[in-house]
Amino acid sequence: MALLNAAGKSDPNTILRTVPYCAWLGLSARVDGDALILDMPFDPKLIGNPILPALHGGVVGSLLETAAIVQTIWETGSAKLPKPIDITIDYLRSGKATESHARAWLARQGRRVVSARAEMWQEDAAKPVASFRGHFLLR
Amino acid sequence: MSDPSEFWKEAMRNGMGQTAFLRALGGELLKFDKGIGRLRLPYSEKLIGNPETGVVHGGVITAMLDQACGMAIGSALDSPMGMATLDLRIDYMKPATPREDILIESECLKITREIAFARARAYHTAIDDPIAIATGTFMLMRFAMPEAR
Fold first, then answer.
1. Model confidence over A118-129: pLDDT tens digits?
2. Which domain holds residue A128?
3. Owning domain of residue B80
């Protein structure tokens, strides 16, 4: 899988379409100013709590981890998919049955490891559903 | 079935703890009793996070570990309660082997009035050679019992 094009730049949407799990979740990316934002459409299969209803905690984690991975490739120009080492997810609000968004940033970029942060929200970016931090191995 | 705790345990055994997302991933409940949960996730193409190697996405492991922690807590409760994940920490010890089933074993560590604690491990064949381990904290939410029949 080629993560980078001939010019050495990554196309987040190509990555998201090529990774089967990301395609299955329906993830897509867009650039907003200098930020990369991931969008995840709602689908009934994503529900973890039918009573509320709320998105599954693992769906929230999947979107956040993917945002961190795509951001890492975007910023580092890594030709390989970064491997997760450890992650922590703070669930702040329940994820509703609606579209979700996430963005990530790198707190620290070393030669072998990056420390990434990410946040997920739905209608209101000021009311995050979850926040994430994790370490990824670059090679 | 007038005893609420029996009603709850029976409902949980019958798969009330299953979620749409667990079913969509293809996950199966193996055991679910007295604070211990065991689940299996058969390998499938849609779970792949790295198309070059066929290794499943970390988010898949996260979902299974989250689910397993919640179920271990659910099976330890005497009365029905809602549950919401507050915090989940996952250490990815090694990549999952492509085309192999993933097993998850979870344990409820402690239940308090408002909060419950659990941990879970994902592995292929040996639990002491884990793919990932998780520690989760969950908020408990009381809700009204269904009418006893």
1. 999 999 999 999
2. 12-137
3. 4-142
CA-CA distance, B21 to A82, in Å (whole number)? 25
Cβ burial, residue B54 (10 Å; 0-12/13-18/19+): middle
Residue A45 lies in a domain: yes
C-beta of residue B108 within 8 angstroms of C-beta of residue B62: no
Q: What is the CATH number of the domain that holds B106?
A: 3.10.129.10
pLDDT of residue B1: 45
Mean pLDDT of B106-132: 97
The interface predicted TM-score of the complex, written ipTM, equals 0.94
% of chain A surpassing 90 pLDDT = 86
Amino acid at A28: S
Tell me the C-alpha distance between B96 and B61, whole Å. 9
Rounded to a whole number, what is the distance in Å from the CA of B24 to chain A's nearest CA? 6
**pLDDT given for residue B32 in this prediction:** 86
What CA–CA distance (Å, rounded) separates B20 from A55? 10
Count up the domains in chain B and report the number. 1
Q: For helices B58-76 and A57-76, what crossing angle results, to 10°?
A: 160
Say what the pLDDT of residue B145 is.
Answer: 54
Show residues of chain B in contact with A81, CB under 8 Å.
49-50, 52
Residue B135, domain member (yes or no)? yes
How many CB pairs below 8 A link A and B?
133
Name every chain B residue with its beta carbon within 8 A of the beta carbon of A83.
92, 95
The C-alpha atoms of residue A73 and residue A84 are separated, in whole angstroms, by: 13
Q: Does a structural domain hold residue B57?
A: yes
Residue A6 lies in a domain: no
DSSP secondary structure letters along A98-122: S-EEEEEEEEEE-SSEEEEEEEEES
pTM for the model stands at: 0.92
Question: What's the length of chain A?
Answer: 139
Comparing CA positions, the residue from B93, B73, B91, B75 lying closest to residue B83 is B73
